[in-house]
Amino acid sequence: MTLTDLPATNGAEFARAEERTAHNYHPLPVVVAHAEGAWMTDVDGGRFLDLLAGYSALNFGHSHPALVAAAHAQLDKLTLTSRAFVHDQFADFCAALGDLCGKELVLPMNTGAEAVETAIKVARKWGYEVKGVPADRATIIVASGNFHGRTTTIVGFSDDPDARDGFGPFAPGFVTVPYGDLAALEAAIDETTVAVLIEPIQGEGGVVIPPEGYLRGIREACTRSNVLFAADEIQAGLGRTGRTFACDHEGVVPDIYILGKALGGGIVPVSAIVADRDVLGVLKPGQHGSTFGGNPLACAVGHTVVDMLATGDFQRRAEELSVLLRERLESMIGHGVVGVRVRGLWAGVDIDPAVGTGREVCEALMARGVLAKDTHGSTIRLAPPLVISAEDLSWGLDQLAAVVSA
Ligand SMILES: *Cc1c(COP(=O)(O)O)cnc(C)c1O
């Protein structure tokens, strides 16, 4: 699809958006003006089924009534105090999120990258003060193919050239091991290791699911060697995989949950790390902070998200719809699809290179009224809002089947 294929208003708006912005994204040429549930409407009234859901930030769909109501109510009362003062939404949100995670303490931030940075700082401090690692020697083990955000420290331990090249020099203190290889991870642990920082499923990497037992093995290795297990559940967590956390699939509890995306209900950026007092307690006043972290609007929305997840309904729905998603995608193997990975309402779909690139497939999907996003060339990631109807999901998958078999 090219700009000239687009209706006039969409094309003009899209060109305007491209003209005055840094080109750090490569958006599909659609200009969205309104959205509800799983459906988005563009500036010309064209309708699109959203099969990306803001990379899981929209797990509850667009404009979920309960979330919008919570935001509206809070907007009229109080939106920001800074953490210099306490506000009346803070304690309840932190307690509810802590309970959801089965942990004692919560430290709210805004973006996912900030939460990862927070986990890195806490793990290092814990390493020096609790584990007794010599000053400035702490190391953190990470995995190949990771995606943890875009700050200079985080891209320094990415192995994606696009994410990394041209942004050095990078912070030391990270050791990379192959994702899914437990023996390599165990071998990399030494007396300077303070944490293992892992995505329980690699989202940006293409919904890469590690071998069964990997997360349990990490948990055991960390416990054995007095190392913190920090699980980046920013994209995988909060219902996406059919459980509250992706780690739940192996019955594993990390020392630090790193959360973001869906925690803000698709309304405000809300992230957090959640851990017990023996870990998060290492932070003392003045040692870490954020002007907007844990603001009243974020807490009101985030608390509603936690309440919605506490019912288990969204997790169940993801699990139920997963059956349809898996069946339909597996039936496409050999018909333009060469591989699929499905967990909950989340899938990585590897497109046969003979069909075209992931980008080309996404453009063809858009022409049929479906929005999805490619990753790493030939993979398409499907992450529909958990509120999507079975009929709509099925229709969206019909479109995918038609595009890849054409
Ligand atoms: C999106 C993402 C991040 C970064 O979140 P931002 O809010 O974009 O900073 C970190 N880790 C994972 C696994 C993610 O999917």
How would you describe this structure to a colleague?
- The chain has 406 residues and is an alpha/beta fold.
- It has 2 domains: 3-63 and 313-405, Alpha-Beta Complex (Aspartate Aminotransferase, domain 1); 65-310, Aspartate Aminotransferase, domain 2 (3-Layer(aba) Sandwich), CATH 3.40.640.
- Helices cover 36% and strands 17% of the residues.
- The chain is built from 13 helices and 15 strands.
- It has helices spanning 8-19, 65-75, 90-101, 112-131, 152-155, 161-164, 182-188, 214-225, 277-280, 296-310, 313-330, 358-367, 390-405; strands at residues 32-36, 39-42, 47-50, 105-109, 139-143, 174-177, 193-198, 228-232, 256-259, 271-275, 337-342, 347-351, 370-371, 373-375, 379-382.
- Helix 2 (65-75) runs antiparallel to helix 10, helix 3 (90-101) runs parallel beside helix 10 and helix 11 (313-330) runs parallel beside helix 13 (390-405).
- Bound molecules: pyridoxal-5'-phosphate.
- Pyridoxal-5'-phosphate is lined by residues 55, 111-113, 116, 147-149, 199, 203-204, 232, 234-235, 260-261.
